[in-house]
Amino acid sequence: MLEDLKLNNANWSKGKTEVDPAFFKRLENQQSPEYLWIGCSDSRVPANEIVGLDPGELFVHRNVANLAPPQDANYLSVLQFAVDVLKVKHVMVVGHYGCGGVAAAIDGKRRGLVDHWLHPIREVHAEHKHELEAIPEERDRLNRLCELNVIRQVRNVASDVFVQDAWARGQSLAVHGWVYSLSNGLVTDLNVGIASLDDYERVVAG
Fold first, then answer.
1. Angle at 68 between CA 160 and CA 31, to 5 degrees
2. Which InterPro entries match (predicted)?
3. Which of left, alpha, beta for 36 (phi over 0: left; psi -120 to 50: alpha)?
């Protein structure tokens, strides 16, 4: 079973070593990424490829609708390891336009456990209800909700004790919010980055 995938793996490995014979030996001995990617599990959003990085250069956490919930031990474990052990310099929360998770959060249908997972998006939707209702096209409304969700998750990451402690001890660390477009393969920086305790206090005060 899955013979095609095994063959693809063999061809990929061969191609890597033909270009760089020491690639896997170097990868085996070192993991020192400067970036943590918190993104959606959507199969159309391949994190490393989007930003042109090789394995070992990007630490990745993915879940449905790129959430960073403060009660999720999986996400928190990744964040702590990235910040405290790997000493990443950048955390990118990356949503994408056309996100099925974002759409599912507000379409009124019941799907089971995932409804609980997506609840934070419904909270964002309620908070920005008037802005979203003023957007006439449904696709544009959902895309704006994707952006608003990323902005909320950036604040969640920045508010976490691991990140706050890193800033307090002078560690270089910035949290960014991006949205990826499936239609053209480009990321848009939402310019909501937070890179210090002072930045965070200004965001909270604002």
1. 80
2. Carbonic_anhydrase, Carbonic_anhydrase_CS, Carbonic_anhydrase_sf
3. beta
What is the rounded CA–CA span in Å between residue 158 and residue 140?
27
Average pLDDT score over the chain? 95
Is residue 37 pLDDT above 80, yes or no?
A: yes
Given 40, 152, 160, 176, the catalytic residue: 40
Q: Tell me, yes or no, if 169 is annotated catalytic.
A: no
Task: Compute the distance between CA of residue 3 and CA of residue 139 in angstroms, rounded to an integer.
Answer: 39
For residue 96, indicate whether it is catalytic: yes
The 10s digit of each residue's pLDDT in 51-77 is 999 888 999 999 999 999 999 999 999
pLDDT above 90 covers a percentage of the chain that reads 90
* 35 contacts 90 by C-beta, under 8 angstroms: yes
The active-site residue out of 26, 61, 90, 99 is 99
Give the active site residue among 61, 96, 152, 176: 96
Q: Which of 26, 44, 122, 202 is catalytic?
A: 44
Threshold 0.85, pTM exceeds:
yes
CA dist., res. 66 & res. 93, Å (int): 7
Query: Which residue of the set 42, 61, 160, 176 is catalytic?
Result: 42
Within 51-191, residue ranges assigned H as helices are: 73-80, 100-106, 113-117, 119-127, 129-133, 138-159, 161-168
In the residue annotation, 44 being an active-site residue is answered as yes
